[in-house]
Amino acid sequence: MTNKELLQEYSESIKRLKKESADIGINDDEFRKMYFDSLNDLDENLQLNRRQIFFKKYIFLIIFVIIILFATYNFKSIYSYIICNIQEYIYPGLRLLRKISIPFLSLFPAVTDLYQETCLIQNPFFTVVDMDCWPCSTVNNIGEFFNPQPIHKQQTAPFIYKTDQPQIDVNKLKTLYLKNKDIFNKESSKVLTNNKYYETPEDIFDSDILKENLYIWKFNNFNVARILRQIIERPKIVPKFGQSTERFIIIDSKHETFHIPDTECNFAFLLVLSGTRIINLQPAEECKHQCKSFKMELKKSYLLWYNWWYWRPSVQLTRGNETFIAHVGSYC
């Protein structure tokens, strides 16, 4: 109701009350006195209620400030007490949360694709303040290694070497996919196309002729990693334990410039499975004034080892028509 309607209803109710008072013998002066007395009582009650509400808020504020000061002064003792007593409730609490989430997951099964993700949203503006760039500032060239051994120490300088990896073309990837179609469709059902939208592996391999696009196929689970190991063996330089389950297969038939995706671990490698491309190894934004950038031709079966904390590789534009296929992995 509007204010005008409320006032109209209030006026009519007063008129009815005045008429009923006149019917029982109360004159206008007595009614007027009763009316103003009731308004004064109502005003006193309102002021009393406001005063009570104010005092309650004031007392609550004082108690809240005292609690904050007490918690700040005894932070270490309170923190230790909570940590010591909460341990036994963590597992039951997570188990209860899991049971509560089951109906939600049944309604939105696509959420389970995020289980293995280490980063849901990447911050494109993230930079490290006062980053120490000496590991890349001392690098003057990209060396080629021969018969390298597994890297147990942190090798920060990038290098290349020729592996024993046989050539893998699109047909071989298609055969592997069709052989394990159910697992791939369940575990890794999305392929990023031209860094814009997603397609399914079936959309890519369904045609006999590969479309001229850039495909980045990400894998992040053990089942697919075991399947990929059948045709892409663990590089010799990567120790037996420590390789991340996260992997990328890059298929480039578009022949344009693109960046190699960041990996879960900072020690990463780019293994060429088919084709040849020029790789531009640029220093990180924080180190671009202290470190050099390098260009190298990476041929079939060659591997580039680098630390993406300091180096960001990109594949350069080419005028050829050769499809470039590469495998990206990392080591922690």
Automatic annotation (TrEMBL):
How does this chain sit within the bilayer?
Answer: Single-pass type II membrane protein
**Bilayer-crossing regions:** 58-75
The subcellular localization recorded is: Cytoplasm; Golgi apparatus membrane
Keyword Nucleotidyltransferase attributed: no
Question: Which keywords annotate this record?
Answer: Cytoplasm, Golgi apparatus, Membrane, Signal-anchor, Transmembrane, Transmembrane helix
Instruction: Look up the record and report any one GO term of the cellular component aspect.
Output: Golgi membrane
Q: For this UniProt entry, what is the primary localization, expressed as one broad class?
A: cytoplasm
- InterPro entries xref list: BRAP
Q: What is this protein called?
A: Uncharacterized protein LOC113397424
Q: Give the gene that encodes this protein.
A: LOC113397424
